[in-house]
Amino acid sequence: MAQIPVYVFTGFLDSGKTKFIQETLEDPRFNAGERTLLLVFEEGEEEYDFSTYPHQNVYLEVLDQQTVTTKQLLALAKKHRAQRVVAELNGMLLVGDLYSRLPEDWVIAQEVMFADATTFISYNANMRNLVMDKLVGGQMVVFNRLTPGADTMPLHKLVRAANRRMDILYDYTDGTTAFDEIEDPLPFDINAPVIEVKDQDYALWYRDVTEEAAKYDGKTVRFKGQVAMLRRDKNNMFAPGRFVMTCCADDIQFCGVPCKWADSKELKPRSWVTVTAKIAAEKHPLYQGELGPVLTAITVEPANPANPDVATF
After folding, report:
1. Spatial distance between the Cα atoms of 50 and 55, rounded to a whole number of angstroms
2. Of 250, 115, 276, residue with least CA distance to 193
């Protein structure tokens, strides 16, 4: 079964999604005649002008993001013999909910978020779960309507709290653009003999070590976490970790790392421990075929609870 690439554009109303998609489909480098199913889940003030496209194999369908079904999407792809999909999503709805209904042969090729820089901070304050939903899985965010010389650090910090790999592009009102080049030093020294992870830095360390396990291969780490037992690897293994909150109480989840320890059976689930361990980049069922961090404990010592007990970014 041939896969159909899906190009997803997210963001709130009037954030510039339609304008960007229009310009993209006007570009012969992107629109070289591929049969393109254009799905619009949010109708804004701007409309698509098909007369400017170098090729007319673009087929617009306006759908309800809350009720659309996999069957409907399959029927539309078949009707238009689509070779790819471009989707403009409704900013007031969660991205993942729609993704769960995409046909199996539809593969997300790129997800880009658009945001009005003048309102983004207030949107985050009032609708943080919707903002984070779009930042966490995206490859790039475009901040438009920025005044030249404006302070971009608040925007940078907000994005990096959700996604360290996301490209950030600033689109200024004078017509210029610039990629974000601010470097974010980690709050711990990964080249130290022992990487000391403070209680307040666990979420950052966990995300970094799981995203770039090879960078930590062979290093030693010390951190505080709660004991969790693994369902599959019950013999001589446990998973020390913390409950981590990305944006709100609804998304709190336990983030632990598999750890080899001969006396793991003696540990009490949910008890707090300080773990000093060697890190190896290995395959483990938790990582679904990918390399991830696997610890070999040197010491596991009782500890007082972390403060706060839920880790955040």
Report:
1. 9
2. 276
The DSSP letter of residue 209 is: H
What are the residues facing 9 on neighbouring strands? 88, 112
Q: Could you tell me which residues are beta bridge partners of residue 179?
A: 169
Mean pLDDT to the nearest integer, 19-45? 92
The dihedral sign for the CA sequence 212, 214, 219, 221: positive
Is there a contact between 148 and 178 (Cβ–Cβ < 8 Å)?
A: no
What are 134's two structure tokens? 């779009």
Rounded to whole angstroms, the Cα distance separating 83 from 172 reads 34
The stretches of the chain forming alpha helices (DSSP H) are 17-26, 70-80, 95-99, 120-126, 128-136, 153-162, 202-211, 213-216
Q: Give the per-residue pLDDT at 247.
A: 60
Query: Which residue in 29, 25, 85 sits closest to 53, CA to CA?
Result: 25
CA nearest to 221, candidates 282, 162, 285, 274: 274
What are the structure tokens assigned to 248, written together? 């709100």
Is the model's pTM score more than 0.90?
A: no
For the 195-312 domain, the top CATH level (class) is: mainly beta
Q: What are the pLDDT digits (tens) for 108-158? A: 999 999 999 999 999 998 998 999 999 988 999 999 999 999 999 999 989
Report how far residue 207's alpha carbon sits from residue 163's, in angstroms, rounded to the nearest whole number.
9
The residue ranges of every structural domain in the chain are: 4-179, 195-312
The answer to whether the beta carbons of residues 135 and 32 sit under 8 Å apart is no
pLDDT in tens, 246-272: 766 667 899 999 999 999 999 999 999
State which H helix or E strand residue 32 sits in.
none
Q: What distance in Å separates the CA atoms of residue 85 and residue 102, rounded to the nearest whole number?
A: 11
Domain 4-179 has CATH 3.30.230.80: no
Cis peptide preceding 305, ω within 30 of 0: no
